[in-house]
Amino acid sequence: MSVETFEPTPLIFTNGAANKVKTLIEEEGNPRLKLRVFVTGGGCSGFQYGFTFDEDVADDDTIVQREGASLVIDPMSFQYLAGSEVDYQEGLEGSRFVIKNPNAATTCGCGQSFSI
Known about the structure:
By secondary structure, the chain is of the alpha+beta class. The chain contains 2 helices and 9 strands.
């Protein structure tokens, strides 16, 4: 009888978000790009989320891959994002990447800012 072990997913990168990242990368024509998610101080709740495309990956970055796309998180941001879900939503307010963070004690109305 074999025993299977599973590593916990450090961050959930949804298919919708991964497919949007792939589309954006194809439009840029640079297959080395990855979506970088980060946390900075500020916003109406103390911390805010940021997204950027990056070619570079540091040795201590966490990388989550899905559907051929990569999501990259630096160690400082990862401590606030562990267990979160990164998704892409299209709605009346527009289209955007969103984070559902179980570590956030409060969030603001726009969903881009949080406190621990």
